[in-house]
Amino acid sequence: MRIGQFYNEPTLKFAAHGNEFCKILAFHLCRGNPIITINAANPAKFSPSLSSLFPPGAIAAELCEPGDPSLLLPAEAQYLGNAVLKRVQEFAAGRLCARALLAEFGIRDFAIEVGEARQPVWPDVLVGSITHTAGFCAAVVAEKSRFAAIGMDCEVAGSVKAELWPSICTLKEILWLRSLPEASRVGAATLIFSAKEAFYKCQYPLTRERLTFHDARVDAPTWGGAGGSFIIQPTKRIALADNAALPLNGRYLLHQQFVTAGIALTAATVSAQ
């Protein structure tokens, strides 16, 4: 099974007063991020929790409702084809999240088209990633001057059943899963899947290399809490080794019924190679 075969594809709506606004304002100021403003036409919301998966300078938005396809730009809508309603709404939700973030970098009415591997095509000055799963969609964007690449993936916790482990996990990962308490295994298996998808999304724009799930191994030394870090190590020689020091470190978050993983390569890290 090839990683990325499920490649996912404003100002944000939140209360601009009271404690919530102060929290968001303080978060942005501490991280050196642009400040999300209000745009009632776009229901996507700034996500401090998902932004925290990445180094300062990356900002994330989320949407927990179906996207309105009427808000797609014509150049985006052309990719819908005969897609079913669920897929259309997911695609629209992803573009709404992404467009909200682009506006924070001064880029408006930019059509986020679909690349040759179904990846979102970003403005030349930005990098980003879009993810969606049942009932949830998110995007993350950062300036290319600060980040060489970025990847994020969200999955429903427990969606990676034991019968899928051999097609997704290496032997070492399967042994780790079996060592965990049974109740913890489904979430841990979902993390492995999500981390590999995020890694694929991060490396593909730099290398154009297609990878399989067995081409990388995930270790999660902090597994057991609501969030933590993971390490992803290639199991073979991959093209990314020419651009970055491996293994790479990422972060994950368990929220509601979801597992979200994020990974980024800073421009300084890649330039040093």
Describe this structure in words.
It is a single chain. The protein has 273 residues and is of the alpha+beta class. 32% of the residues lie in helices and 23% in strands. The chain contains eight helices and nine strands. Strands 5-9-8-7-6 form a five-stranded antiparallel β-sheet. Strands 1-2-4-3 form a four-stranded antiparallel β-sheet. It is globular, with a radius of gyration of 18 Å. The two termini are 30 Å apart. The model is unreliable at 6-32 and 34-38 (pLDDT under 50).
Q: List low-confidence stretches.
A: 6-32, 34-38
Shape: globular
Q: Note the beta-strand portion.
A: 15-25%
Helix segment tally: 8
Spatial separation of the terminal alpha carbons: 30 Å
Widest β-sheet, arrangement of strands: 5-9-8-7-6
Top CATH class of the largest domain: Alpha Beta
Question: Got a strand count?
Answer: 9
Q: What percent of residues adopt helix (DSSP H or I)?
A: 25-40%
CATH topology of the largest domain: Ribosomal Protein L22, Chain A
Secondary-structure-derived class:
alpha+beta
User: Do you know the CATH architecture of the largest domain?
Assistant: Alpha-Beta Complex
- Average pLDDT for all residues: 88
- List the secondary-structure elements in sequence, H or E: HEHEHHEEEHHHEEEEH
Number of domains: 2
**What's the story with the biggest beta sheet?**
5 strands, antiparallel
Radius of gyration: 18 Å
